[in-house]
Amino acid sequence: MKKFWWQDAIIYQVYLRSFQDTNNDGIGDINGVIKRLDYLKELGVNTLWISPHYDSPMDDNGYDVRDFFKVSEDYGTIDDFKKLLKEAHQRGMKIITDLVLNHTSDEHPWFEAAKDPKHPEHKHYHDYYIWHKPKYDKLGNRKLPTQWVSWFGGPVWEYNPPTDSYYLHIFSKKMPDLNWRNKTMRDALKKVIQWWIDLGVDGFRVDASNHLEKNWDFPDSKPGYEHFSSLPKHHDYLEELGRDLFKPNDLLIIGEAGGATRKEAIQYAGFDSNEFNMLIQFEHCWADTDDTNKITPGKWAKGPIDLPKIKNSFAYWIDVFKGKGWNTIYWANHDQPRIVSHYGDDKNYHQESAKMLAFSLYLLPGTPIVYYGEEIGMTNVDYQNLGNFRDVEVFTEYDNFMRLGASHEVAMQSLRDRSRDNARSPMQWNTDIYAGFSKATPWINVNQNYKTINVHQQLQDKASIYNTYKRLLKLRQEEQLAYADVTFYDLDHPQSFNYKVSGKHHDFIVLCNFKGTELKMSKELNLESYELFMSNYDQTNNLNFKPYEARIYRSIKAKQADNT
Ligand code: NOJ
């Protein structure tokens, strides 16, 4: 069963900027992570994924890297980072960092040279990025090379007067895309990776990994995503990194690659693949969009939750990797709203729905990734003004909504519901000023509900969301649920999330009412040889489930010891 160390990983994603500030500048830092290692260990976590810690102008909170070899001054020093590795390793914990390979900051020295014909190294670096000459209409007006749309809204092209050409950026205009066809550029990035490996990191989460290759014929279409997503050649680049760097160093590599087919998934993260060990995919993340909304389109339009879509996505990915590779399970990360606000009810059933979401996910096989604050049920933030937001995507999309005819209030509501800033507010440690995150005004507002939702309070309460997470993560390890077989019941039922898993000592049946109305579970569930093991309500009533009620039943008889 077990082949690699990372199969037993329980990953916790730390959004560095928002986790714990120790030097009181209002920004989370590496020493803050060190300070909280014992807390995380106690929760049951053994691996941390740290969001980008590199030197950056922070247009996209560090995904815009200015110097790959330097720690951002916002976060500390290289010595702090070395200390983090040491302290984590002493506790038997692993550290994986974000690895941003698709683009750099426009303030990276490579781009500074690439964009400026007068720069002494212009010739060398120009081709590190992707350029296109302008087109002209009949009147001689300059036109964009294509109508491709960036992931943050707006065109992917930005005009650079000194070279009279456009550069490509599939995220913000301060994040020019690298040209992976250039071998010298690839070799330069490989040096970066080797450097962090030599320092002692245990792995990477590879950002935007399916976008490395572009269609260099630049065919016109809108939005044109197919011309810069999942093109076959990007596997060659990843294979090269894996063969030369990832595999020889026994690292944990998690690829961020949405939309992979079954075959591609195995190519990325099959046991025999050199590319990754695990995949982050997204099908379950936006199962509540209203596709008829043309004013705040795509993920920005909230519709009813399509629960079958969510369940089918989990079932699908477990099946894809069964025996062939390794699965990840997670609810949400820094790119989606808070899960309890998104798929639960943070107003009327905060505790119940947060625990229900935990029950429904954390007994499934694979490696879990818990997002910071999820373990205490942190919620979306009620941002009042546009000025409260910090995310670059918010501002490009706000302009987009306005162009499409939205009123300010409609646009604001959409941002409040769906923006990534919801998941980036400071960690709520206690009831002190700024929730114990910092003594200075934080870079982004603290959620006003920190007096009632915080770590300190939940540590004292045996039935808290935190203690529920702790118990579930412990159960996962004791029962080796990462390797479990799972059977889903009623995948197409719109309200129940039910499944059976086979643990090392016991089998478990998980029954969840995913909605805010009562539900009578099917009589066909055979619970005769099972006993109630955990529940998110004090009282349970046969198969009648209250709003968001969730239960775990355990087989009464323990299994024979397996000596294999
Ligand atoms: C994916 C990251 O998760 C997201 O936060 C970031 O904005 C983009 N990649 C660009 O690096």
Descriptive account of the structure:
This protein has 564 residues and is an alpha/beta fold. The protein folds into 3 domains: 5-103 and 183-385 and 425-467, TIM Barrel; 109-168, Oligo-1,6-glucosidase, Domain 2 (Oligo-1,6-glucosidase, domain 2, Alpha-Beta Complex); 485-555, Sandwich (Immunoglobulin-like). It contains 15 helices and 22 strands. It has helices at 30-35, 37-43, 78-90, 109-114, 122-126, 183-199, 233-246, 262-269, 307-321, 339-342, 350-361, 392-403, 408-418, 455-460, 465-478, and strands spanning 11-14, 47-50, 54-55, 67-71, 94-100, 131-132, 135-136, 142-143, 157-160, 165-168, 203-207, 252-256, 278-280, 328-330, 367-371, 486-489, 496-502, 507-513, 519-520, 530-535, 544-545, 550-555. Strand 11 (203-207), helix 7 and strand 12 (252-256) form a beta-alpha-beta unit. Bound molecules: 1-deoxynojirimycin (NOJ). 1-deoxynojirimycin binds at residues 60, 63, 100, 171, 207-208, 256, 334-335. 1-deoxynojirimycin binds next to loops.
- Please give the domain count: 3
Q: Which CATH top level class of the largest domain fits?
A: Alpha Beta
Secondary structure category:
alpha/beta
Overall 3D form: globular
Strand element count: 22
- The helix content, as a percent range, equals 25-40%
| Low-confidence runs | none
Biggest beta sheet attributes = 8 strands, parallel
Work out the helix count.
15
Question: Any idea what the radius of gyration is?
Answer: 24 Å
Averaged pLDDT? 97
Strand content: 15-25%
For the termini, the CA-CA separation is 10 Å
Assigned CATH architecture of the largest domain: Alpha-Beta Barrel
